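cron nightly-structures :: item 1 of 1
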Amino acid sequence: MGVCSAFLLIIITLIFPPVGVAIVAGCGADLLINICLTVLGYIPGHIHAFYLEYVYYHRREEARAGRMVGERAPGVYSDRVQRGGMGYGTVAQPY
């Protein structure tokens, strides 16, 4: 994802946080948690969504640089977010 798609994801998350989480994490526990947080309070849903997006993009940049983070991020249940969108054991080659 480039800068334009990241910007679009942020705009989508500002409007409705669960859609941003669904795009990044898929349908799973993180999406259910975000829906509950958004229903309970709009701001907690935003905080959770932006945290997931931060972890996703941070792990993605680490994987592209060839550095895999060993420990799991706290509060993130999606393997896709934990790996930064990369496959199991796959490291993208630097450009």
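cron nightly-structures :: done
The CA atoms of residues 24 and 53 lie 7 Å apart.
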